[in-house]
Amino acid sequence: MIAIAAASKTYATRGGERVRALDPIDLDVGQNEFVVLVGPSGCGKSTLLKMVAGLIAPTTGSIQVHGTAVDGPREDVGIVFQSPVLLNWRNVLDNVLFPIEILKRDVRAHRGVASDLISLAGLAGFETKHPRELSGGMQQRVAICRALIHDPTVLLMDEPFGALDALTREEMSVELLRIWEERKKTILFVTHSIGEAVLLADRVVVMSPRPGRVSRIIRVSLPRPRTMATESTSEFRDHVDEIRDLIFGSRQRAGAAR
Amino acid sequence: MSTRSEISSSEVVSAPAPRASAWSAGSEYALPALALVGLVVLWEIAVWLFRIPRFALPPPSAILAEAWAQRAQLPGHTWTTLWETLAGFALSVAIGVPLAVLITWSPFLRNTIYPLLVVTQSVPKVAIAPLIVIFMGVGQMPKIVVAFLVAFFPIVVDTATGLSAVPPDLLDLSRSLKASRLQEFIKIRFPTAVPFMFSGMKVAVALSVVGAVVGEFVQADKGLGYLIVVSTTYWRTSLAFAAMVVLSLMGIALFAVVALVERVWFRWYSVE
After folding, report:
1. Fewer Cβ neighbours under 10 Å: the N or C end of chain B?
2. Do A167 and A253 sit in the same domain of this protein?
3. Cβ(A99)–Cβ(A46) under 8 Å?
4. Interface residue A103 vs chain B (CB under 8 A)
5. What are the chain B neighbours of A87 within 8 Å (beta carbons)?
6. Do A169 and A204 have their domain in common?
7. DSSP-derived pairing of the beta strands A186-191 and A34-38
């Protein structure tokens, strides 16, 4: 579904210096697979996501979605960012319909689709509310509906719950899994949170910084559907520990008075 | 979900206890009014107490009496200045907003037009006013042009700032949907810029009054600026003061109208 082949990214700084953000990366994501990129700041995970979105071009290598090369933004990809970036002057329904308008498709014909998505995201009855009347978690639900309205096959999520409080964040992860069970998509998801990664992913891609590279890919075999209860199983904690060791090193963890 | 909606609705009407809000609402208007009345009374007493000559500083009562005595001709002068102000303001919006769009749209124009605008702003408009009269002759047009010159810059700057105040993620989103630049401007940038435009217009409308008066100072046979020049020439200070009072009332009223339009617009704009 998504095929990343030796894609790397090098930025030129103002001084003309070349900084490598991302070493060549190989990654294949299967249809309807949920893959989470996790790693500390500066590991290039957002850069990788933006390259898949066609928002920035890789310096070397190539990226394919659906067997065609990504050479710019494409309609079969939906994106959710860290901030909901809703249009404050539009109500929930019109925010969700925004991509339909931009893509010059039939807005009226999609009203039903939008309402269904809004209900699916638990926002039924909020169609005519404006973003500032909603909590941060609800705004992000609207952003997810907006990303799904044109029925993309791939959903890219760049730390979508990073700006939410810890409780809302946990709730949103479970909500996202529920939505994903209903509307299967291929998801590439970026996060800082190890627990969030394990809870969501079929596979977790652990990345390390300077330059960004994949340090290991871990298959999460926890059964689905997963809920908050999943987080208290020993397998869940084993996965979390494994990833934490990869990121921080086992020595430091031993030193952290465990 | 219902608890959330309760929370958000209580945020909307979040007001302190009734008594406190009544007091603050009252003091919001009452205190400035009291201060103003106090100042006027103090002025009246001071003129009388220190025997200040009337041609230097007339007491408020004399200004009021003069305004009443001139009630036949004051409205005509007021109307002239108001018209010049409004025309200059309208011109500054009509030219300033498209200019801001051009500057934001094209880096080339930003690098060519914008520095020129800044340079023109560094020239005092009061110094240009006599030249404008030479260029355009007598009549209301030169006053309108001076009002425009004084007022349009804040509109350009604020609108351009607003057009650029779009969160980068939102621009990425529109790019990811392959939005055209026209769509980006109409559906994202322009609505984002509206609040900025209003703050620019509030400054501009007050400046338009200044511009119209400066234009009249240079050459005019009508208008409140003309009235001030003529009345001070003949030491009729109380008439000059009366004209000034009308001018400041005009400035306040125009500002209030823009603020009102903004409020009404936003009701429609954000909360229906």
Report:
1. C
2. yes
3. no
4. yes
5. 170, 187-188, 191
6. yes
7. parallel
**Fold for domain B60-270?**
MetI-like fold (1.10.3720)
**Predicted-complex ipTM score:** 0.86
CA angle B133, B137, B139 (to 5 degrees): 100
| Alpha-carbon distance A241 to nearest alpha carbon in chain B (angstroms) | 33
Does A119 touch chain B if contact means CB atoms closer than 8 Å?
Answer: no
Q: Does A167 touch chain B (CB under 8 A)?
A: no
Question: B8, A134: Cβ pair inside 8 Å?
Answer: yes
For residues A67 and A140, membership in a common domain is answered with no
Residue-level pLDDT at B269: 60
Report whether B42 contacts B30 (CB < 8 A). Answer: no
Q: What is the Cα–Cα distance from A31 to A18, expressed in whole angstroms?
A: 35
Cβ within 8 Å, pair B188-A87: yes
pLDDT 10s digits, A37-95: 998 887 888 899 999 999 999 999 999 998 888 999 999 999 999 999 999 999 999 99
Lay out the sheet containing A77-80: strands in order across: A77-80, A154-158, A186-191, A34-38, A203-208, A213-219
Domain of residue A117, residue span:
86-151
Interface probe for A, chosen from B173, B265, B272 (most Cβ of A below 10 Å), is: B173
Q: Does residue B2 sit at the A interface (CB-CB below 8 Å)?
A: no
Residue at A22 is within a domain: no
pTM here is 0.81
Q: What number is the average pLDDT over the span A199-214?
A: 90
| Mean pLDDT value across chain B | 87
CATH number of the domain bearing residue A235:
3.40.50.300
Q: Name every chain B residue with its beta carbon within 8 A of the beta carbon of A56.
A: none
The answer to whether B1 contacts A122, with C-beta atoms less than 8 Å apart, is yes
- Once rounded to an integer, what is the mean pLDDT over residues A1-5? 89
